[in-house]
Amino acid sequence: MDLKEEHLLGDQVATHWYYTAKRAALLAATRDVAAGHVLDVGAGSGYFSRALIRAGRSSQATCVDLGYPADSEETEAGRPIRFRTSIGLTDANLVLMMDVIEHVADDVGLVADYAGKVQPGTHFLITVPAFMWLWSGHDVFLEHYRRYTLAGIEAVLRAAGLSIVAGHYFYGGVLPMVAAVRGVRRLTRAGQAPASDMGRVPPLLNGLLSGLCAAEVPVMRLNRLGGTTAMVLARKA
Question: Which residues share a beta bridge with 129?
Answer without folding.
Answer: 229
